[in-house]
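As the work plan foresaw, the team has encoded backbone shapes as discrete tokens. One protein thus recorded appears below exactly as we store it.

:::
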Amino acid sequence: LFFLTLTSPARLFMTTEFASRLLQALGSECVLTQPDDIAPWLTDWRGIYRGNAQAVVRPRTVEEVSKALAMCNEAGVAVVPRGGNTGLCGGATPDAEPTNVVICLDRMTAVRSIDTVANTMVAEAGCILGNLRRAAQDADRLLPLSLAAEDSSQIGGNLATNAGGVNVVRYGMTRELVLGIEAVLPSGEIFHGLRTLRKDNTGYDLKQLFIGSEGTLGIITAVALRLYARADVRSVVLAAVESPAQALELFERLFAKCGARMQAFEFFTGDCLDITLKHAEGLQEPFDQRYPGYVLLELADTTDEAALNALLESVIGDALEDGLCVDAAVSASLAQLQTLWKLREEISEAQRADGPHLKHDISLPIEHIPAFMVSAEARIRAVEPGVRPFIFGHFGDGNLHYNLSRPEGAPTDWAAKAGYALTAEVLDEVMTYGGSISAEHGIGQLKLQDFKRLKNPLEQRMMHDIKRLLDPKGIMNPGKLLS
């Protein structure tokens, strides 16, 4: 946790003088400098991190972003880009330095164009993801990026963290949906890469440097996105399985039979169902008995609901006969579909209601997930026998949310005291399988120490070289990712 630090009168004078220059250059509607006005921008939504800043800049245009960055770069003032503040790793929260300037694009919310011939959308970085999905739907198209926080996260932040979500198994991560970007470099120069071309083979794909960079190279101000045909015909099945290995066999069968119609393949343990039924309202036991694990599969298509349902029922029926699952419930209505999804979507809130816990957003080669779940549990129980794992996630793309709750009766500060030792065990085990310590949440400040410890040294050096080239004064988002 970060707290306010005492500074010398000279430092305070310097801070006030630069904030006054920002005010003069950009206006009081754009620049906040009073402590009460700045305070809401200094914490993450989980309340774990808190930092300081001398000003918050809320530009309306890319030119205002450019002017603010150029001024900060000239003065050597650190800049913290901020989106919808839905991140889980503290990547948009400033550090303790009182001279920080937070730049938030929440007023840059224009949808510049929707093209239903080329199937593209151009939108400014402050647009709420859910609003963009609805705008695409109104144009009879689909923007497939879908997250639990989509009605508060901003598309610029989605790009900066390369967000994932539930549809990755079919449409890929955020970077696979991006055709072009507009971004402002620390120098104030504007990168005009907002192209909607499907093919542009003219050297390095520079936009990809900014996607997943967590605001350490510049600020994304607009994006050109791919759109798809609306897949309004949906069918969902909840299948009970005896083990993760059985879930993997079921995935192989369903992928082979359903192909591109497979939109999501989620997994959660029986313990996750227990805690969700305990804390979430309006949910009931899906089956007559409890099982070790559950798979939530969604198929989606553009037409012919009867054919889609028939396909799902046939494939699941064969899977039951062949012992690839032990029970199944297929949605017969939109209400049932939403109820089945709620069993998966309420897990995070249920665990938060249960008390402090450790979150691990990891990815693994899909074929190694069952073995990892066995070996990781043995490893953590050797350190903390009473720990309670709650494991769920996007099984179809190899992403697990491997969360650990405190032993029954443990004090509420358990996570703070035992957290790093257990996290190190989990992440070390991930690396033995060739996995990643961050699947879709990024590094931020939460995983910085483990990133430095576990990321390949050559890859780290290359990243630092790119950082020095684009941000030679090191003003962009200090204390995150590469600090």
Notes: The radius of gyration is 23 Å.
